[in-house]
């Protein structure tokens, strides 16, 4: 049986009642209103799938009402009832966003197939709307964990620039969450319903990256069998995130500069420019100002990219955020492997907070995932931590003897794998038999 709620707005009570009865018999919930004011009040109080409205109402016009409803409730579909000879009103209503129109006084059975399609479209629109809200929430600034002054200042800057179309340059060490910020800026902007496209500029060679970014024409090179869109076209109307921008080749830097200045680019093998409306967010762990001064990065491109800069703090600079981040990752990975969320002992936390975290949030995330997979303890102790964290304050041998260095390294790897020799051999890139011989030779546990 159909499922949906319908609002009928019509001042002719007999027609309205007849229409309501027909629609209710199909299993729909029906609400009635006799004028624009009453109809808008009901729209505020209840969720509807479809509105059926007459054109001529005592206090307004159904065509104008269509535009207002769509602006307030874009997921609602509207069917307009027009009187004989006023088909132009229906056409205008469709231009204002109506689903369709039907001539008033026609066989009422005609409205049912139309209603079925309108409800189906509304259900799809509502599912998309809920999905978009869920995605926006997942990638919003509210999802960024941390109460330290450093991260809160970065969030404040991100929220301010998100409301604009300004180009953004995100600075920070590897693993500090630059892509998370790029996503939050996109989903906090008026481009959030358009594509967000991310590309790592260091992962591809010059020619492949050029084709990926800008696309190519058929025959541009061997194997180019058809016209292909690039990522800039895919991001049209939305945002493109260029990670590791400092690794970009000089020729591509010039092409990117043209996009920033003219919103146009040439596809590989094309002579006609392609125009796009794309916001650019770039990120790097390099000092681009220094790279520019040394001639390793185009200064004109740097100043174009650096319209608005946000520096993301290293994890060691925000120690108060380590505990909530670790707790978040424990909960995340425990849910993935269907385990209860373990608690963290004070000794475990002390080790986390005193560690230097050269890999930043990414390193913390990876370590928490490994711990959740390997440990079944309800309370985590420092014994669950990798060797380099739990033994951070132990003295390090300064021996230059190769055998001593090899012995220490094998011991560290064995500690990291909790004595799993197969995994240790894989990490050391040696045969299992060789590892057993080394263990016996160095009398390792």
CATH C-level label of the largest domain: Alpha Beta
Query: How many strands in all?
Result: 16
Globally, the shape reads extended
- C-alpha termini separation: 69 Å
CATH architecture of the largest domain: 3-Layer(aba) Sandwich
Sheet with most strands: 5 strands, parallel
CATH superfamily of the largest domain: P-loop containing nucleotide triphosphate hydrolases
The parts where pLDDT drops under 50 for at least 5 residues are: 394-398
CATH topology of the largest domain: Rossmann fold
- Give the tally of structural domains: 4
Helix-strand category: alpha/beta
Give the integer mean of the pLDDT values.
87
Summed up, the helix count is: 19
Strand residue content: 5-15%
Summarize this, please?
47% of the residues lie in helices and 14% in strands. It is an alpha/beta fold and 445 residues long.
Describe the structure in your own words:
Helices cover 47% and strands 14% of the residues. With 445 residues, the protein is α/β, with parallel strands linked by helices. It has four domains: 5-135, Response regulator (Rossmann fold), CATH 3.40.50.2300; 141-313, 3-Layer(aba) Sandwich (Rossmann fold); 315-393, Helicase, Ruva Protein, domain 3, CATH 1.10.8; 395-445, Arc Repressor Mutant, subunit A (Orthogonal Bundle). The chain has a five-stranded parallel sheet, sandwiched between helices. A five-stranded parallel sheet has the order 9-10-13-8-14. A hairpin with a 2-residue loop joins strand 4 and strand 5. Helix 6 (149-162) packs parallel to helix 7 (178-187) and helix 13 (322-336) packs across helix 15. The N and C termini lie far apart (69 Å). Residues 394-398 have low confidence and may be disordered.
């Amino acid at each position: 049986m159909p499922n949906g709620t319908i609002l009928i707005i019509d001042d002719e009570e007999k027609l309205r009642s007849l229409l309501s009865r027909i629609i209710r018999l199909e299993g729909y919930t029906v609400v009635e209103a006799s004028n624009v004011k009453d109809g808008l009040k009901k729209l505020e109080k209840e969720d509807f799938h479809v509105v059926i409205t007459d054109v001529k109402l005592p206090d307004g016009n159904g065509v104008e009402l269509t535009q207002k409803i769509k602006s307030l409730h874009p997921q609602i579909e509207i069917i307009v009832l027009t009187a004989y000879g006023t088909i132009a009103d229906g056409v205008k209503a469709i231009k204002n966003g109506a689903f369709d129109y039907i001539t008033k006084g026609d066989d009422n059975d005609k409205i049912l197939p139309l209603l079925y399609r309108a409800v189906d479209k509304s259900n799809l629109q509502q599912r998309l709307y809920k999905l978009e809200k869920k995605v926006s929430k997942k990638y919003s600034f509210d999802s960024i964990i941390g109460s330290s002054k450093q991260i809160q200042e970065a969030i404040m800057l991100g929220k301010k620039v998100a409301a604009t179309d300004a180009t953004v340059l995100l600075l920070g060490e590897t693993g500090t969450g630059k892509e998370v910020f790029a996503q939050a800026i996109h989903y906090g902007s008026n481009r959030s319903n358009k594509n967000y496209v991310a590309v790592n500029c260091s992962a591809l060679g010059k020619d492949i990256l050029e084709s990926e970014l800008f696309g190519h024409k058929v025959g541009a090179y061997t194997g180019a069998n058809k016209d292909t869109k690039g990522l800039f076209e895919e991001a049209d109307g939305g945002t493109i995130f260029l990670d590791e921008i400092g690794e970009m080749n000089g020729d591509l830097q010039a092409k990117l500069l043209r996009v920033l200045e003219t919103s146009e680019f040439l596809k590989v093998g094309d002579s006609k420019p392609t125009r796009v409306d794309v916001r650019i967010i770039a990120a790097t762990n390099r000092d681009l100002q220094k790279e520019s001064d040394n001639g390793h990065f185009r200064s004109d491109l740097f100043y174009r990219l650096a319209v608005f800069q946000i520096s993301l703090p290293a994890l060691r600079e925000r120690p108060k955020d380590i505990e909530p981040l670790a707790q978040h990752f424990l909960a995340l990975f425990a849910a993935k492997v269907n385990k209860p969320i373990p608690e963290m002992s004070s000794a475990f936390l002390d080790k986390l907070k005193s560690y230097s975290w050269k890999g930043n949030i990414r390193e913390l995330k990876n370590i928490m995932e490994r711990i959740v997979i390997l440990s079944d303890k309800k309370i985590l102790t420092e014994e669950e931590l990798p060797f380099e964290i739990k033994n951070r304050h132990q003295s390090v041998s300064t021996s230059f003897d190769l055998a001593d260095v090899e012995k220490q390294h094998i011991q560290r790897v064995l500690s990291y794998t909790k004595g799993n020799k197969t995994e240790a051999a894989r990490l050391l890139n040696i045969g299992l038999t060789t590892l057993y011989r080394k263990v016996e030779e160095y009398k390792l546990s």
